[in-house]
From TrEMBL:
Belongs to the DDB1 family. It is found in: Nucleus. The keyword Nucleus applies. It comes from Trichodelitschia bisporula. InterPro entries: Beta-prop_RSE1/DDB1/CPSF1_1st (IPR018846), Beta-prop_RSE1/DDB1/CPSF1_2nd (IPR058543), Quinoprotein_ADH-like_sf (IPR011047), RSE1/DDB1/CFT1 (IPR050358), RSE1/DDB1/CPSF1_C (IPR004871), WD40/YVTN_repeat-like_dom_sf (IPR015943). This is DNA damage-binding protein 1. One of its GO terms (cellular component) is nucleus.
């Protein structure tokens, strides 16, 4: 039994609309992202999300209507299953409500529209038409007449009527503004259709709409052809109609090489060529004479209509505003601000400047469409598989996202955010920060010490948040760098610089005691009773902190042991920990004698030097945990025995490429968390008995400290390259995204932990003299910095199809890490010619790519994998096994070992042991077994099982022994099981269908994961799923003990939670194709629905647990644990 829950919700924007929805006289932006609706309002800081709600269906239509007596607009929504409804915002309850629904307007025998669903409203607001099927137009009246003919109420949806038209392939449509001279039937709406006839000729036809109410029967709608419609053919590249709602009226027809104006009064057309050919994809009206256009290549244009004295169109001018993401939809907000909703890039809010250019005001990350992804476990350096849960923050998903100029590599990681509370100013080059109390009786800190390389500055904070820089403070030295400043329990103030240790009386500001070392202090740590310093890098000095500074134990190490860092803890008062420059050594020393109690070599690499040590009490009532920040970017964790001081349970997590700074932050429960300032700032803390590494949105952080002041309780002070600020670390984990913009489509992604790099297969599109040029590359990118290291261009007309990392023979009996790339050619060469290549690359010590060998193949190399040390290549109709041999030591070659003929074309392969699951283009999944032949006998590939139903596969992955998860092109997930103990050979060869669900989004990639879960876990994570809409899902198998409970809970919640439009959950999630449709999901649990249990009222929760076999509190605990998985 299967479980699925979203990790990252869809981010691709296809539809958006400005309307007054949440409040009267206040505009908001409604955005549709796959099956979600989001509502934004404009603030001084940009668009702010106010409401987000899921829809049981993928949104394909958005429009607005205003019913009579309603102070706000209502939202008309259409879904991919031809279900339509209107929504309104109930201000009294602050909830979204359904006003009217049409459960199904579909024509079962009709062909869906090839150009997408369209919804158009007549300019007078009397009619709305839907174009969902080829050759069929659905008309819905939006008026209701009273007893008098003149009494008309607008915004009330009436009964639909269907009309068949001969124009099947309609590219665009628009209602024309009604004018006094629009004909003898001028009061009737006129609909313009831009269509392509059966001969491929593009034409425009204008039809008049008439609607007759049923009056007890079915309503009738007719679309009559206007005789004066333009009949001359247009350019084949015309794709959009823009109706002009004021003088000069008519419409504009957008083409690739020119723009045509259709005069609404004379029915004449006029074409004006473009300076540069382009492909327009979206447009938006600013006013009756200005329009914003967007093209395929991300350019934005301003189209200006120039009128003569009689308000007739004289000409038009088009100017380039700038370049942004490729737009799916444009929405004009106000005052020159435009929302660019994008499917293949980040959505943005831009401002049209006075210079007729655009500046980006706000960017909304979009990781869709995800073409490929890999899982990088930062806490597991042993291989490519994942060992940590995604929610731990140690695992991140690296995606190949976007397309063409919007293509990028994205890192998706679980983490927490920062809320800025105050900004102290642009203060660069801060070395360290310390918070102090200026009064011993104070409950909060009120002073911030800012240390620089050659000075110290102090800022005082009042209770209301006012800040003042102090010229002197309690006798502290301001003329040198402060290494440590802290309050002592007896009212003293400790300041340590490289040249002195001072103990100052907090009340009088007098220096109680001072100690000056013979050499500079290079490292130090302190608790309430002891200060440990490294003097000159080779001597450890212990100082007792009482009323005076009392130097006690001292130990000088030989020249081969230079001290790099030290740490001390109040919980382990008798010891300190020391890190050394040489041999990557860390030791635990007795504070009284400085004898070595424990010594551990952390790493065998020379660059892995401990640079920062910290003993932090993460767990309540347990000894502190030792953390080491290494010079190579690793953070290493050790458990320390409080009796023997032995170090154990070593765990290394890669967080950067350079040394990190570790700082302790107190928590409300008396424990601590650890902030790691590095390239990937992270917060280490304990939740549910496990250590969590959460990413933090604190880019470019150099240092920080806790700053629990009266004005900013629970805050932290953070120094970055941008300045010094006071922030609050949020407690709720969210998704954090890091981007490497490439400007190319990242088609394939492979990750090599051994090489610490990503291998990327990219496709670049450029324009040269208005001609598209396609080039493909294989790139190497650093795993942490997300920087491009090297690029290998492929041949002309060659495209990358697949990329993997693999351990392959090195010719000397050993194995070495390589990248393997499969390609195809675009040219129209004869079939007997080679149509693809398999390339094997090595990464040199200088991190450059070197081609070891190539092999020509007679078809595109769609997929690659490794089985028993050999390469599996899925070609056009064949799966081939290759072995890497070395006829000569310097030039390896690929030798064919075995082949298997597929049904049509393999789309994806998944290897487990010697079994290869092949997802076919049309024929679902077949399982092939590979056998190495005996001496003199060829290797073999034998089909051992098959799924006999038709499925247009897109991805496949192994999720359990003899169990596979497949996705199809219609948005379904299918779990298949091979029964090796079946009673007959037919049963053993048939893949049995175990579970099905409609995800509603097309899946591009499924990656198996291997995660160690806690005992008694309700579900066991098995795979991540990525979609074209930018969603990432967690797939898991439900433990046997929780199967009945979760299924019963899902059934109860589906009956009690109403979705917008009153769409039934079972109908939404039921498996569906063009030829088959189930009534409900089969043995699949939707985690998004299950998690809604926590938001239900107590009464609904009581009803939902009926038959579950668990109490409300037990179900809450289970659901909360499921939510924490992501």
């Amino acid at each position: 039994m299967a479980y699925i829950a979203p990790i990252h919700r869809p981010s691709s924007v296809r539809h958006a609309l400005k309307l007054q929805f949440l409040q009267a006289d206040e505009d908001c932006l409604a955005v549709a992202k796959s099956n979600r609706l989001e509502f934004y309002v404009q603030t001084q800081d940009g668009l702010e999300l106010r409401e987000s709600i899921s829809i049981y269906g993928r949104v394909t239509i958005l429009n607005k209507i205003r019913p009579p007596a309603s102070p706000t607009d209502h939202l008309f929504v259409g879904t991919d299953r031809a279900m339509y409804f209107t929504l309104f915002w109930d201000q009294a309850t602050s909830t979204l409500r359904t006003e009217k629904e049409f459960l199904d307007l579909s024509e079962k025998s009709a062909q869906p529209s090839q150009t997408g669903d369209r919804c158009t409203i007549d300019p007078t607001g009397e009619f709305m038409i839907l174009e969902v099927y080829e050759g069929i137009i659905t008309t819905l009246p939006l008026t209701r007449r009273g007893k008098k003919k003149a009494d008309v109420e607008y915004g009330i949806i009436g009964e639909p009527a269907w009309t068949r038209i001969p124009e099947f392939f309609v590219r665009s449509s628009a209602f024309l503004q009604r004018t006094p001279k629009s004909g003898e039937k001028g009061d009737r709406p006129r609909l313009a259709l831009l269509y392509e006839d059966h001969e491929g000729t593009v034409k425009v036809r204008v039809r008049q709409l008439s609607y007759t109410a049923g009056g007890g029967g079915d309503p009738i709608a007719e679309l009559e052809d206007i005789p004066n419609s333009p009949t001359s053919p247009l350019d084949r590249d015309c794709r959009h109609l823009i109706p002009i709602s004021g003088p000069p009226y008519g419409m504009l027809i957008l083409g690739e090489t020119g723009i045509t104006y259709f005069d609404d009064l004379t029915f004449l057309t006029h074409t004006q060529p473009l300076d540069d050919a382009t492909i327009f994809v979206a447009w938006e009206k600013i006013d009756t004479q200005r329009y914003v256009l967007a093209d395929e290549y991300g350019k934005l244009y301003l189209l200006m209509l120039i009128l003569d004295a009689q308000e007739k169109l004289e000409r038009w001018r088009i100017d380039v505003l700038g370049v942004s993401s490729r737009a799916s939809v444009l929405v004009y907000l106000d005052q020159g601000r435009i929302f660019i909703g994008s499917h293949q890039g980040d959505s943005r809010v831009v401002q049209i400047t006075e210079e007729a250019k655009i500046s980006v005001l706000q960017s909304m990350p979009n990781i869709g469409p995800i073409l490929d992804f890999t899982v990088m476990d930062m806490g597991n350096r042993s291989g490519e598989g994942q060992g940590n849960e995604y929610s731990s923050g140690q695992a991140r998903i690296v995606t190949g996202s976007g397309a063409w100029n919007d293509g990028s590599l994205r890192s998706v990681r679980s983490g927490v955010g920062l809320e800025d509370l105050g900004f102290l100013g642009d203060i660069p080059h801060v070395v360290d920060l310390f918070s102090l109390k200026s009064d011993t009786s104070s409950q909060h800190v009120d002073t911030l010490v800012v240390s620089f390389i050659d000075e110290t500055r102090v800022f005082a904070f009042s209770e209301n948040g006012d800040v003042e820089e102090l010229l002197e403070f309690k006798g502290m030295s301001f003329t040198e760098e402060t290494l440590l400043a802290m309050n002592l329990p007896d009212g003293g103030l400790l300041q340590v610089t490289s040249s002195a240790v001072r103990l100052v009386d907090l009340d009088g500001g007098m220096v109680r005691s001072e100690w000056r070392p013979p050499q500079p202090i290079t490292a130090l740590a302190a608790n309430d009773r002891h200060l440990v310093v490294s003097v000159g890098g080779d001597t450890i000095q212990v100082i007792k902190l009482t009323d005076a500074i009392i130097p006690s134990t001292q130990r000088t190490f030989p020249s081969g042991q230079q001290v790099a860092c030290v740490t001390i803890s109040s919980e382990l008062s008798g010891v300190c920990a020391v890190g050394f420059w040489q041999d990557s050594l860390v030791a635990v020393l007795n504070l009284d004698t400085l004898d070595t109690l424990e010594s551990v070599k952390v790493s065998s690499e020379e660059v892995a030097v401990p640079r920062s040590l910290l003993l932090a009490s993460l767990f309540p009532d347990q000894p502190p945990t030792l953390f080491l920040a290494m010079a190579d970017g690793n953070v290493v964790k050790f458990d320390i025995d409080p009796c023997t001081y032995k170090l154990s349970s070593k765990k290394s997590t890669i967080l950067g490429t350079q040394q990190a700074v570790l700082k302790t932050l107190p928590r409300a429960d008396g424990t601590s968390s650890v902030f790691v300032a590095c390239e990937n700032p992270s917060l280490i803390y304990v939740s549910e008995g496990r250590i969590i590494y959460s990413a933090v949105t604190a880019e470019n952080t150099t240092c920080l400290c806790s700053f629990d002041s009266a004005a900013y309780p629970g805050a932290v002070a953070i120094a970055t390259a941008d300045g010094l600020r006071v922030s609050l670390i949020e407690s709720e984990r969210t998704t954090h995204i890091q981007t490497l913009a490439l400007g190319e489509t990242v088609r394939r992604v492979a990750y090599s932990p051994a090489l610490k790099a990503f291998g990327l297969g990219t496709i670049e599109r450029t324009l040269e003299y208005a001609v598209e040029k396609i080039e493909s590359h294989f790139k190497l990118a650093d795993e942490v910095l997300f920087q491009e290291l090297d690029t290998w261009p492929l041949e002309q007309d060659e495209l990358v199809e697949s990329v993997i990392r693999a351990e392959l023979p090195d010719g000397t009996g050993g194995l070495v890490e390589r990248f393997v790339v499969g390609t195809s050619y675009l040219d129209d060469a004869p079939a007997e010619n080679h149509r693809g290549r398999i390339l094997i690359f090595e990464v040199t010590p200088t991190r450059a790519l070197n081609l070891l060998t190539e092999n020509q193949v007679k078809g595109m190399c769609r997929c690659l994998a490794i089985v028993e040390g050999k390469i599996v290549a899925a070609l056009v109709k064949t799966v081939v096994i290759y072995s890497l041999t070395y006829p000569s030591p310097s030039r390896p070659t690929l030798a064919k070992c075995a082949t298997y003929r597929t049904s049509t074309a393999p789309i994806d392969i998944a290897v487990t042991g010697n079994l290869i699951a092949v997802a076919d283009l049309m024929k679902s999944v077949s399982v092939v077994e590979y056998h190495t032949g005996d001496p003199g006998v060829a290797d073999s590939l034998t089909e051992v099982a098959r799924h006999y139903q038709t499925a247009w596969g897109t991805a496949v992955a192994n999720v359990a022994p003899d169990t596979w998860l497949e996705s199809d092109a219609e948005g379904n997930l299918i779990q298949l099981k091979r029964d090796q103990d079946g009673p007959t050979e037919t049963d053993r060869r048939r893949l049995q269908l175990q579970a099905t669900i409609c995800l509603g989004e097309m899946v591009n990639r499924i990656r198996s994961i291997d995660v160690v879960t806690q005992p008694g876990a309700a579900v066991i994570p098995k795979a991540f799923i990525a979609t074209v809409e930018g969603s990432i899902y967690l797939f898991a198998l439900i433990s046997e003990a929780k199967q009945n409970a979760l299924m019963e809970l899902q059934t109860n919640l589906a009956e009690r939670i109403q979705s917008p439009g009153y769409i039934r959950f079972n109908e939404y999630r039921a498996f569906r194709t063009q030829t088959r449709q189930n009534e409900e999901p089969v043995r699949f649990v939707d985690g998004e629905l299950i998690e809604k249990f926590l938001d239900c009222s107590p009464e609904t929760q009581e009803q939902a647990v009926i038959g579950v076999g668990m109490s409300v509190d037990e179900v809450k605990e289970m659901v909360e644990s499921l939510r924490r998985l992501h």
